[in-house]
């Protein structure tokens, strides 16, 4: 009976905490539920959810990918550097293609050579950001210096459908829907979680774990590249040194708070969305109440520790 209660609490802890946060803001934060605040939250949460969707898959295999922030920078810079000569859409495709190649390389190192994901992605985190800085010569690329194409991309980043729906909501919805279907409705989703549960058993029953790793890390890089494009478009600048900085930590925190165990074997897609919303809500609460950002970081850290503790109790 006690185990059932623990399991139920762990499954709904993130939702409960989000509800409590929202209730607290109703009471203590003026203008928290204004339309402008909601629009701003959607634009800010977009990179976290996009990277979080890929990170959910990676962590459910028992791995981790701390290179997604650097991949955001690489995709943003590649897009900005190439769109003048080949166009906006081909530039985006080029940026996404090279990012996915990096992700597939990571998956091959983890799946085929059995190297530690933390070590590989740590090296790529440093190396890929270095490449991004080299490509932009260490300077930020402002879109207002890129002529008409830069202005079009800036306009896209701030576009609102029907006058009030931010364009960032589209990749958020599509990514969540795609990963939810993948996990819940496909054999590949079962294989991904089975590998996280026991890679040896998965290989024995005929699952090609190396191919699954390549796919998972490649898809994680794909979402990071899209996040980089969306973020660069929103701020109208591609900065190799700062674009996507610490995005990997926000994504990992959202996944863990959402209930996906770091040991793998289970993926909670909607939980990651809730985790992202909790992270954004904490930040917004502090900003709107003139509370220093350091306190928000402390609360987020406490949330991560608490989430890991709940997972330990459940296991």
Secondary structure layout:
Elements: H1 2-28, H2 35-60, H3 68-86, H4 88-111, H5 117-135, E1 141-142, H6 147-157, E2 160-161, E3 165-166, H7 169-185, H8 187-197, H9 199-204, H10 209-235, E4 237-238, H11 247-257, H12 269-288, H13 293-314
Antiparallel strand pairs: 1-4, 2-3
Walk me through the structure.
This protein is an all-alpha fold. The chain contains 13 helices and four strands. The strands form two sheets. It has a two-stranded antiparallel ribbon with strand order 1-4. The protein has a two-stranded antiparallel sheet with strand order 2-3. Mean pLDDT is 90; it is low at 1-6.
Please name the defining characteristics of this protein:
mainly alpha, disordered N terminus, single chain, 315 residues, 4 strands, two-stranded antiparallel ribbon, 13 helices
- Tell me the fraction of residues in β-strands, as a range: under 5%
Tally of helical runs: 13
Number of E strands? 4
Strand order of the largest sheet: 1-4
The helical percent reads: over 70%
* Terminal residue distance: 15 Å
Largest sheet: 2 strands, antiparallel
Provide mean pLDDT, rounded. 90
Residue stretches low in confidence (pLDDT < 50, at least 5 long) are 1-6
What is the 3D form? globular
Series of H and E elements: HHHHHEHEEHHHHEHHH
SS-based class: mainly alpha
Radius of gyration: 20 Å
């Amino acid at each position: 009976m006690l185990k059932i209660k623990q399991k139920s609490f762990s499954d709904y802890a993130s939702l409960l905490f989000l509800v409590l946060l929202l209730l607290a803001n109703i009471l203590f934060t003026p203008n928290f539920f204004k339309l402008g605040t909601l629009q701003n939250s959607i634009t800010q949460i977009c990179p976290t959810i996009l990277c979080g969707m890929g990170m959910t898959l990676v962590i459910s295999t028992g791995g981790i990918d701390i290179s997604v922030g650097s991949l955001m920078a690489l995709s943003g810079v590649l897009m900005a550097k190439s769109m003048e000569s080949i166009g906006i859409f081909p530039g985006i495709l080029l940026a996404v293609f090279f990012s996915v190649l990096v992700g597939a390389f990571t998956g091959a190192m983890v799946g085929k050579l059995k190297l530690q994901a933390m070590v590989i992605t740590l090296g790529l985190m440093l190396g890929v950001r270095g490449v991004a800085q080299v490509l932009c010569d260490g300077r930020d690329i402002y879109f207002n210096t890129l002529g008409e194409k830069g202005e079009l991309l800036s306009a896209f980043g701030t576009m609102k459908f029907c006058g009030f729906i931010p364009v960032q909501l589209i990749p958020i919805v599509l990514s969540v829907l795609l990963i939810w279907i993948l996990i819940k409705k496909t054999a590949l989703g079962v294989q991904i979680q089975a590998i996280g549960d026991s890679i040896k058993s998965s290989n024995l029953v005929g699952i090609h774990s190396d191919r699954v790793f390549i796919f998972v890390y490649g898809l994680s890089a794909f979402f990071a590249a899209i996040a980089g494009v969306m973020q660069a478009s929103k701020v109208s600048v591609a900065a190799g040194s700062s674009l996507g900085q610490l995005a990997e930590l926000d994504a990992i925190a959202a996944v863990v708070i959402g209930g996906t165990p770091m040991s793998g074997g289970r993926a909670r897609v909607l939980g990651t969305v809730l985790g992202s919303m909790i992270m954004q809500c904490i930040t917004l609460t502090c900003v709107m109440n003139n509370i220093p950002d350091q306190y928000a970081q402390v609360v987020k850290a406490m949330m991560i520790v608490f989430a890991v503790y709940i997972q330990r109790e459940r296991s």
